[in-house]
Amino acid sequence: MVAADAFRQEWGRVNAALIRQTGDWDLAEECAQEAFAQALRRWPRDGVPDRPGAWLMTVARNAAIDRLRRGRTHRAKVEELAVMASREMANGETEAGAGKDADDSDVPDERLRLIFTCCHPALAMEARVALTLRTLTGLTTAEIARAFLVPEATMAKRLVRAKHKIANARIPYRVPSASALPERTPGVLAVLYLVFNEGYSASAGDDLIRRDLCDRAVDLTRAVTELLPGEPEARGLLALMLFTRARQAARVNERGDLITLADQDRTRWDQAQIQQANGQLGDALAVGRPGQYQIQAAIAGCHAAATAAGDTDWPKIARLYRHLADLTGSPVVELNRAVAVAMADGPAAGLALLRHLEAGGALTGYYLLPATRADFLRRLGRNSEAATAYEEALALVGTSPERRFLRERLDSLSRRP
Amino acid sequence: MFDEAMHYLQILTVDPDLAPATPEEQREAMDALGVWLDGLDAAGASLLHGSRTRPPEDATTIRIRDGQLIVTDGPYAETKEQVGGYGVVECRSLDTAVRWESRHPHARMGSVEVRPLSGGTRAGRLPEPGPGKARYLLLVCTDPAVDSRVTGNLEPPASARTVRVRQERVIVSDGPFADTKEQIAGFDLLDCADLDEVIEIAARHPMARAGILEVRPLWRHGED
A-B interface: how many C-beta pairs under 8 angstroms? Predict the structure, then answer.
């Protein structure tokens, strides 16, 4: 294991354990950083230790003890930390980590506390996302700022404010009680899904950092499924992310242009990830408590199962969207249902559903609404109406791959009157 | 003739443009508060309890809609002058209260709204929170246009007076400190171990369904 891998795997754990032991978010972050900096210096020279997690934890904890001692206050905390260090040394085993066999780290897993605290509803959504990425995945403030297209100073301020609120309003550092857990878990999953989507459906910018966002979201969601094994929606979300990520390589061409699902080269889909996703989804559905992520994953699973676009089970997808629309009341889901219905029963049926949506007004200004109408009209051979709708969509869309896609469709109409 | 003492809530607000910026200005404001408190006692009135609150960034609102608990970051309303403290004052009349509030340092750095506690509500001294507990101010806010059943422990916003001092002139206006959709209708103080406990209690508050509850941690001594 090289230092970079250790960083990925252990940062969240080391940080979460330090916050737990010191109650000080800034101190924890500084000391985790120091431990990883030492690893970068020493491992290439001295070799990677047998238990990298324990090594990092010890260095980080010693750094914390040093800093607290220098501060001359917090005597109780210093003692507590020292006791904990010696106990772990003696046992070579940690309490929280014990009993979790899937777990090959030596650091006690306090990440569930950390994620529930970072995703606390009393924090603004953007603060939850930033704090989760910073404290659990170790992305730097600069990287998070770049991923969300805000100046680094703005992101730094956002993180500081969130940490202050946690301290000042006393947002507790713990996993919610069993009775509050069902209420709070969707909030955690929503943050993870938002991070994944931000990485996947690039609203602009730097590809590398965005792919990294996706991977971090998958890692964290996987950790949540292990830490909350009784929560089928966490598994559903993981399955959804894996199905989606499996198509990543086939999703854009060399120029970075978007390729629709129908036109993608399905041999480039990552079958290993699809298989993993199917496994997770199967486990989730077996619990018998379906939810929005499980249904979305089931839809993604239908696509993944079709070796050619023509083999897609559209009637089943349309039914799943119906179920999802009932559950969420979301107009975007309704738009997707119209697409599925158009595939199952023809574009005229889809167009009828769109008319309802347009009358509702909830999606006014959303480019996919005219883009979908354009597609239905094109398939019905109503080319001049389709052209108008494509132009309407082009006026609403901001990112270049989507613009190029719509422009090409529009041009193809005039080539083929 | 013996006048029975009345109880008022003072809502202290801060205008970010007028707030003391330098440590000297902050010290001056603290000194002015000491002078104000001394004067209050001398006039036979008293501050039963009160405190600065943490700024709006540390506020949380809680409400229940369609049976769903909704917790959000920030104060109940985005106003220029923002709640920065509270106090429960005992004195003879609203006019006396208004007169005293015109000397309150917050009248210069924002405003002081005085609101009678509704009939029958009696206030007393308040002991410090117990060990491991922190105190939070809970503001019960309602939209008078939507819900007329004000069940707060304050007289309606129309009975409020707001005092400001600008360029050494005392300006007293009728009504609350800001003309917002939701208005403060009541208040409470909660001593809780953490924010989750506050949210749990607030979620059971009868006004969580009709109004919005804002909780603000109180300023603790020794905090920056």
Answer: 47
B69: in domain: yes
pLDDT (tens digit per residue) in A29-66: 999 999 999 999 999 899 889 888 899 999 999 999 98
- Record the pTM: 0.84
3-class secondary-structure state, position A97: coil
What number is the ipTM of this complex?
0.90
Q: Which of A62, A95, A128 is the last residue of a domain?
A: A95
Chain A residues whose CB is inside 8 A of the B59 CB are 169
**CB-nearest partner of B196 from A124, A161, A172:** A172
Domain hosting residue B11, numbered range: 6-217
Count of domains forming chain A: 2
Q: Out of A123, A172, A183, whose CB is closest to B73?
A: A123
B85 domain residue, yes or no: yes
CB-based contact, A176 to chain B, within 8 Å: yes
Question: Strand locations in B74-168, DSSP E?
Answer: 82-91, 110-116, 134-142, 161-166
What residues of B are in contact with residue A120 (Cβ under 8 Å)? Answer: 195
Q: Is residue B1 included in any domain, yes or no?
A: no
Instruction: Provide the residue range defining the domain that includes A81.
Output: 3-95
Q: Summarize pLDDT for A255-310 with one digit per residue, the tens.
A: 777 788 889 999 999 999 999 999 999 999 999 999 999 999 999 999 999 999 99
Q: Give the bridge partners for B69, in sequence order.
A: B64
The number of distinct structural domains making up chain B is: 1
Tell me whether residues A169 and B199 touch, CB distance under 8 A.
no
B162: helix, strand or coil? strand
Residue A282 to residues A184, A236, A287, A298, A412, Cα–Cα distance (Å): 24, 9, 9, 9, 42
